[in-house]
Design a protein that fits this description.
By secondary structure, the chain is mainly β. The chain is built from two helices and 35 strands. The strands form four sheets. The chain has a 13-stranded mixed β-sheet, with no helix packed on it. The chain starts with a helix and ends with a helix. The chain binds 2-acetamido-2-deoxy-beta-D-glucopyranose.
């Protein structure tokens, strides 16, 4: 008896650490349990998880090619959390974490041992109340696809990518909408980081290496870059500078013309140089050729979350005079997730009763949410009835 109980316990343990493999399109609404094993979504199918308060992945997460993992919080009063503890996250399809409809700030804490995105990945929040906690901090970090961080309203929260002091490798496209990203790692690779719609990047640890092939693209007139000034010169690759967006340092520019200029632009090399004075070296930004030197101006970057440095930035009032490198791919906002809107449909069930009659029941099914935002399914029968089956009648004669 005791032995059987023991066997049962072991079996239960084995089942709970077994992989959860999604092989057909699946929609789960309300609370679900993920277990302790890996999560595998086979090629070409999706798993849409809706209004599950805490989605905690304990093992590896593997989203196949042409597949989707959608985790959505539709309940406005639900503070959604998605966490990856110790596994590897590999995405060859679409991953979309969407709490844009919820007023409460979500937590997306994807830690794990490695992160590889070859597909499209979206992390969305509302941002108007509280601070969304959004981080992908695996020590092995590779983006080869599209990685989008979206907030409806900019908050003072900052996106964290990679493990402090280690590398993030971006050979793909990273996009920010209404976000602040604070760099704390080396940035390696030849990809593009686009600051779209009111987004900023703060390069906070510039003693680390930031690949001069990485492009920082200021796509919006309200976007900005702020760079920590240090005692040796560095060059950053910037596209899209113009229309009033800003490039600055975390110190006030020392501007005492004609002796010292807070900035200079070299029309032959396309390098914009900002000077912070003292022991700080000038910082160089490769903005490209064609700028009109009379359209630059020293300003203050007031973007939310950025350290406000009086007269610490430079702006350009004209449009960017050169084209954006082709490595910068279009940014996209969050895709719709399957099963997130209320639906109504009919089902038809056919059976044969004990008298050999064919019975047909047509049901109306409604999947929707109630007043407390909980999902329910209601079934009402439209028609039901049995008729004698002519084929059966003939064979039995
Ligand atoms: C940028 O975001 C801040 C904070 O949400 C907001 O106050 C500001 O108006 C936004 N700027 C633009 C140009 O949208």
């Amino acid at each position: 008896m005791l032995f059987r109980k023991y066997i049962l316990a072991v079996l239960t343990l084995i089942t709970s650490v077994m992989a959860r493999t999604i092989t057909t399109n699946t929609i789960d609404r309300g609370a679900i349990s993920l277990g302790l094993g890996d999560t595998i979504i086979e090629d070409g199918v999706y798993w849409s998880i809706i209004d599950n308060l805490a989605t905690a992945f304990a093992g590896n997460v593997d989203v196949g090619s042409g597949s989707g993992l959608y985790i959505s919080g539709l309940n406005p009063l639900l503070s959604m959390s998605v966490t990856l503890l110790s596994g590897s996250l590999t995405n060859d399809g679409i991953i979309s974490l969407n709490a844009v409809q919820s007023l409460l700030a979500p937590t997306y804490s994807l830690v794990g041992i490695s992160f590889t995105n070859n597909g499209e990945m979206y992390l969305g929040a509302d941002g108007s109340f509280g601070s969304p906690n959004i981080q992908i901090t695996a020590p092995i970090w590779n983006n080869n696809g599209l990685l989008v961080f979206y907030q409806k309203t900019r908050s003072s929260a900052s996106i964290e990518l990679g493990t402090s002091g280690l590398d993030i490798k971006n050979n793909g496209q990273i996009c920010f909408f209404n976000e602040l990203y604070t760099q704390r790692t080396n940035i390696v690779g030849t990809g593009c980081i686009t600051l779209d719609e009111n987004s900023s990047i703060f390069l906070s640890n510039t003693l680390l290496n930031i690949d001069t092939n990485q492009v920082f693209y200021l796509a919006d007139s309200a976007s900005s870059i702020q760079v920590h000034a240090i005692s040796f010169s560095k060059t950053y690759n910037v596209a899209g500078f113009g229309n009033g967006n800003k490039i600055g340092l975390d110190v006030t520019l020392v501007n005492l013309p004609p002796l010292l200029n807070g900035y200079t632009y070299d029309t032959k090399t396309g390098i914009l140089t900002l000077r912070g004075g003292g022991v700080l070296s000038p910082m160089n930004f490769n903005i490209g050729l064609g700028y009109n030197p009379s359209l630059f101006k020293i300003v203050t970057d007031d973007n939310t979350g950025i350290i406000r440095i009086p007269a610490g930035a430079v702006t350009y009032s004209g449009p960017p005079p050169n084209s954006v490198p082709s490595v910068c791919q279009p940014c996209k906002k969050l895709p719709p997730a399957p099963g997130t809107s209320a639906t109504e449909f009919t089902t038809t069930a056919t059976s044969t009763n004990s008298d050999g009659f064919t019975c047909t029941e047509v049901d109306d099914i409604i999947v929707s949410t109630d007043k407390s935002n909980s999902w329910f399914t209601s079934t009402s029968t439209i028609t039901a009835g049995c008729i004698s089956n002519p084929t059966n009648t003939i064979t039995s004669t």
